[in-house]
Amino acid sequence: MGTEPSLLRVPIASGGTAARLKRHPVDTIPHHHPAPAEPAQPAAPAGGTQTATLNIEGMTCASCSNFVEKALNRTPGVQRATVNLASEKATIEYLPGQIDRAGLKAAVEQAGYGVHEPAAPASPNVLASDQELDARKAQAYQKLKRRFQVAVALAVVIMPLSMLMLWPALMSRISMPLLNYVLLALTLPVLFYSGREFYVSAWNGFKHRTASMDTLIAVGTGAAFGYSLAATLIPHWFMQHGIMPEVYYDTTATIIALILLGKVLESRAKTKTSAAIKALMGLQAKTARVVRGGQEVDVPIEDVVIGDEVLVRPGEKVATDGVLLAGHSAVDESMLTGESLPVEKKEGDAVFGATLNKTGSFRFRVSKVGSETMLAQIVKLVEEAQGSRAPIQQLADKVSAVFVPVVIMIAISTFILWFDFAPDASRLPLALVNFVAVLIIACPCALGLATPTAIMVGTGKGAEHGVLIRNAEALEKAEKVTTVLLDKTGTITRGEPSVTDFLPTAGANPAQLLPRLAAVERQSEHPLAEAVVRYADAQGAALLPATGFRAFEGRGAGATVDGQAYLLGNRRLLDEHQVAVSAATEQAATRLLSEAKTVLYAATGGQVVALIGVADTVRESSRAAIQALQAEGIEVVMMTGDNPQTAAKVAEQVGITRYFAEVLPADKAGKVKQLQAEGRTVAMVGDGINDAPALAQADIGLAMGGGTDVAMEAAGITLMRSDLQGVVTAMDLSRQTMRTIKQNLFFAFIYNTLGIPIAAGLLYPITGWLLSPMLAAGAMALSSVSVLTNSLRLRGYKRTA
Amino acid sequence: MDTTQIIVTLVGVGLLGFVGWFFFLAPHRVAAAVSTSAGIQQVDIVVKGGYSPNVIEVEHGKPVQLNFYRDEENSCSEELLLPDFNIRRELAPFKTTAIELLPQQAGTFEFTCGMHMLRGSLVVK
């Protein structure tokens, strides 16, 4: 991580070793080879060589990579090859006239290794790595289904045959031993085809002195089958000891069929838990229309490099991250931010890969590719969150660590007790049945699945709504929050100035004036000027040309429009240009200032023609979001650097009763501490740039990224949407996820603590209940499936507001 | 109590002790990482009903690459978790999955399968 991958390069081997073009065992070549490591060189432009990168499969150690490298270097047409074991990639310089990519692939295959050609080839990209794994999983699922079908088909024959004894009239005509042999023949395939995996896995575990779910199933069904086998082969021995030679083939077959049913359902449900992240990965564009040498060419996304110019037409996906060069459009970014309204894009704005261009065509310069893009970062963050451990899981983890051996011990104790205390004639079958039932009903899977599945669904769902949860702990913290502290700027308000008042003085014509002022400001890059331009655009003001633009540092700007010189700026600008300010104008300006607004003066011909009030405005969604939080019993507190009057005004506007005014940036963390000292669990919401210490101090920090940086260190949760709705979603989702986890854990614990004693026959002395191992198998299959299903309910989560 | 019962009881109690000893007191298979010339500490781990080796010793501050070769198809071991490093990875059967991480602090970090049945630990020195 973070360092150069090791690129092992070995000199081209001389002849004589060529006969060894076979895959050699891993350890036959010493791991320490004399060749020093050298960094790979980029493609040499001279001599017309080309560079190809191949994904090599099957290399397990450094000697394998050396071997592949030698094989490639020996291939005619190859100038130079380096193989990196860590990334499983070979970088090959070759002469295109002598060999091509297919030839290189053949050379690697001849050496005994595979070349993996993904549909979206080689790039160090989290987005494209899982296709093969998916294929294998689909294959495994098909196999599992077939094994299940075979088990069911045979079990439905075995069951009625085993029950023939219920009809004495029939039984008298059939030879009992013969029937047992028929049942045995039917059960064998169930055991050795359908149930094979359980025994193999239990055996593998046994060799490592570990025990898993499969151990329980293997021992349980093995015991039932072994007993039945003995009763079939040597019934006389049983008779001599006064025991009916009963067989449990139906039990064996049914247990395996039911457990496989559970596995089929489980594996179906499990793929759904990661559906959200798969969907995110699938969003990446496959090709990009790049301008190369003045021509538009469609190239695969992997060949797009930083600095390329890419064209995007309406209805097309933006290929990767970049900065808009020309054109303007509205882009649907909902897949990344959860924001349903398209975002207006103009020159200089950032565009992101995987978003959908709606209205206009534009051209952008690529600034990020592959794993650097916003989409890849989101995927990485969600993946990391799904790999994190939730503190709530600790108990379950401790229990599952000792679960299987303990269950085996309980089962053995059950056997002993039944054998010692049951009536002589039935003690062996009773001991056996209860022994098997205990092993089969115990379900460590439910415990193991309870937390992670809910976290996976929850974090995936969050990403869909533009709420990126850093880890499971953050989710747990967010659930406990009692107070949300909002940094006003950038959260409740937009964090950028907008025009709130446009006040032409008496005699001025606003319809004529606004386009002219906008023309002046269009030339300026000042945020206040941008606010005026945005306002004019929103009003539908015409676009006019301005000439003779001049910026007055710290004061404003001036230009000539329609032959008239306009000045736009602060009071100092007017004073410098000897513009008179009337009493009425003075009054209006004072009023605007008292409302904590910035005042822009517009003047022409030595006269003030308009006043423009500019302020940071409250987002439309803020009030609703704050109310939604309050409705959930969370207290919302605001802090701001503004004076108390302005703070009070904003607080009132959005329905906040408690606020801190005149908070210096350095004191933000102190305010969080103050709230924490009151015994509150505080969530701090900020823009993530200026308030990192406060975010870190809070029990949980929520950064409103606004689409800039996904992985903000100080924040437990990053909100891609730039409004407070994201906070509501985060709080809501964390509560629902935690509720699901608690339900799951409760169910898993209760299921096992009730199920195991019942299966052991604890209720027998009181109620006479014994649990059939077949019922136990059914219960066990359903228990893990119900935990999964409960987690999947989170997929139905809808944003409340 | 007849003789059979006594025998069954004695054998059963013996088995109890055996199961406890066998699973809980299993010895660790320790392996120290081998550093490549590029400074990456590599360890090959076979996943088959358990992790062998199951105690991996590495040094802190240097990148670590754990090559998990999953030599079975059974679903128990299909996921690998290294929660302290926020890693959850699916291991493809009969393939090597390389997991890269950079341990910054010394300590013992557990790695487990998806359901916490199989366990191993990464000891960072």
Automatic annotation (TrEMBL), chain B:
TM segment ranges: 6-26
Domain EfeO-type cupredoxin-like span(s) in chain numbering: 18-124
InterPro entries per UniProt: Cupredoxin (IPR008972), EfeO_Cupredoxin (IPR028096)
Classification via Pfam families: Cupredoxin_1
Keywords on record: Membrane, Transmembrane, Transmembrane helix
Protein name (Swiss-Prot/TrEMBL): Cupredoxin domain-containing protein
